[in-house]
């Protein structure tokens, strides 16, 4: 696992590099945990000679992860995990700093997968995935590379679902660490990051006033919780739709209206999907919606809104109203508006999660990569949680960076918690 390849790339404009560097440096100010890990990596070099392929949203926060991996000794090639999420100035800065990057904002489907294959040409030992597209491509089309892959990490709920299905079918060829499932990831990134960045993207794209609007949030997982919380905080009435009775009950007791999508369709002014599933807003729902209803998606893939069915229903055609805002006219007096072509709205129409919350997610990524390199021989080809010691270390470092101290158990308390003799 040695050797450094010359940087290769396919990006929009290398001339944007200086702007990208400025924005990366701004994000770094909000990522103290990753900075501490980078300093540790510079001394320990746990990734010396390791080739990493990172299929990620190419953002300022991701760039800081890339620099941390390099500090640990890794050679990292980067491709986009979503056709609309790349920040072209960041891609340029990374190339200027010697990384191989294959990512252009707005790339089409064929280019997206060509970029994945170009990244895989770097013959990775470790894969950092965001939606499992690289891992699935490896198993489907690039099986000659599987033998040298030590393991992978996965950033998203959607990706973890796909990877667990692969493990269940006994086709997964190497161990995967589900970074998404770390407490210091999903409790903060998914809830507070998605909540804030989704609302931010909707407002940037449309400039609508949320106060007084009825917002329908499909899915009450951690992402849906965050979106519902922020929409209510902006003065909206919030309806939650769910298929899980426990989550539906939780949403009800958190103070939201809960109903089926069919019931919610005539009521909503703004619909936000966050389920990770297919056709959550479907053909049957569009005719029920009011004129001007706005639809967007905060899930990983652009399948949650059935856009093919909507296009078939749009007898009056389609037109662009603003950047990333498209109108589907169902009748002369009624239209439905879709944001960002149904793709991940917070990254297509805004900048994604704030750096402060990505600090913890990417700290988990960096430490999980080092863990895989050190322990891959002990691991089976299945999906593992982030080791608890990594999760707790990330939380400890984050608290320390914020100047917050917490209590520690005394020896007496630890003994009590291990005992069974004490009673009433």
From TrEMBL:
Family: Belongs to the adenosylhomocysteinase family.
GO molecular function annotations of the record: adenosylhomocysteinase activity
Cofactor: NAD(+)
CDD domains from the UniProt entry: SAHH
UniProt domain S-adenosyl-L-homocysteine hydrolase NAD binding: residue ranges: 190-352
GO biological process, any: L-homocysteine biosynthetic process
UniProt gene name: ahcY
GO cellular component, one term: cytosol
Protein's organism: Thermalbibacter longus
Involved pathway(s): Amino-acid biosynthesis; L-homocysteine biosynthesis; L-homocysteine from S-adenosyl-L-homocysteine: step 1/1
Full protein name: Adenosylhomocysteinase
HAMAP family registered for this protein in UniProt: AdoHcyase
EC number annotated for this UniProt entry: 3.13.2.1
Cofactor note: Binds 1 NAD(+) per subunit.
Residues involved in substrate binding: 59, 130, 155, 185, 189
Taxonomic classification: Bacteria, Pseudomonadati, Thermomicrobiota, Thermomicrobia, Thermomicrobiales
Binding-site list for NAD(+): 156-158, 190, 219-226, 242, 277, 298-300, 346, 353
Top-level taxon: Bacteria
Function: May play a key role in the regulation of the intracellular concentration of adenosylhomocysteine.
UniProtKB keywords: Cytoplasm, Hydrolase, NAD, One-carbon metabolism
Locations listed in the record: Cytoplasm
InterPro entries xrefs: Adenosylhomocyst_ase-like_sf, Adenosylhomocysteinase-like, Ado_hCys_hydrolase_NAD-bd, NAD(P)-bd_dom_sf, S-Ado-L-homoCys_hydrolase_CS
Reactions this protein catalyses: S-adenosyl-L-homocysteine + H2O = L-homocysteine + adenosine
């Amino acid at each position: 696992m040695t050797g450094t390849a010359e940087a290769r790339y396919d990006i929009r404009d290398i001339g944007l590099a200086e702007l990208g560097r400025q924005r990366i440096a701004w994000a770094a100010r909000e990522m103290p945990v990753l900075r501490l890990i980078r300093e540790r990596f510079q001394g320990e070099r746990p990734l010396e000679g390791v080739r990493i392929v990172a299929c990620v949203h190419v953002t300022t926060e991701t760039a800081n992860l890339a620099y941390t991996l390099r500090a640990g000794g890794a050679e990292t090639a980067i491709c986009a995990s979503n056709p609309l999420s790349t920040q072209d100035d960041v891609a340029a800065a990374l190339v200027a700093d010697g990384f191989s990057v294959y990512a252009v904002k707005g790339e089409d489907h064929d280019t997206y997968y060509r970029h994945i294959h170009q990244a895989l040409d770097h013959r990775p030992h470790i894969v950092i995935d965001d939606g499992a597209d690289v891992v699935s491509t490896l198993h489907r089309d690039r099986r000659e590379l599987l033998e040298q892959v030590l393991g992978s990490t996965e950033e998203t709920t959607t990706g973890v679902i796909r990877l667990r299905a692969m493990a269940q079918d006994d086709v997964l060829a190497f161990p995967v660490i589900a970074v998404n499932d770390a407490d210091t990831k999903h409790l903060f990134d998914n809830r507070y990051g998605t909540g804030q960045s989704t609302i931010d993207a909707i407002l940037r794209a449309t400039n609508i006033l949320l106060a007084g609007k009825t917002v329908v949030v499909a899915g009450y997982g951690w992402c849906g919780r965050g979106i519902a919380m922020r929409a209510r905080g902006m003065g909206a009435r919030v309806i939650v739709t769910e298929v899980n009775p426990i989550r539906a009950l939780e949403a009800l007791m958190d103070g939201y209206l809960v109903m089926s999508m069919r019931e919610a369709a005539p009521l909503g002014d703004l619909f936000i999907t966050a389920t990770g599933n297919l056709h959550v807003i479907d053909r049957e729902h569009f005719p029920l919606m009011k004129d001007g209803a706005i639809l967007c998606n905060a899930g990983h893939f652009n399948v949650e809104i059935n856009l093919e069915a909507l296009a078939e229903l749009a007898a009056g055609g389609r037109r662009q109203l603003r950047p990333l805002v498209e109108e589907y006219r169902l009748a002369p007096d009624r239209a439905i508006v879709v944001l960002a072509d149904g793709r991940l709205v917070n990254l297509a129409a805004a900048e994604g999660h704030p750096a402060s919350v990505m600090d913890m997610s990417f700290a988990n990524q960096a430490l999980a990569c080092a863990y895989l390199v050190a322990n891959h021989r002990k691991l089976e080809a299945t999906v593992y949680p982030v080791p608890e010691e990594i999760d707790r270390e990330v939380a400890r470092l984050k608290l320390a960076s914020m100047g917050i101290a917490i209590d520690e158990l005394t020896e007496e308390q630890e003994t009590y918690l291990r005992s069974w003799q004490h009673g009433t």
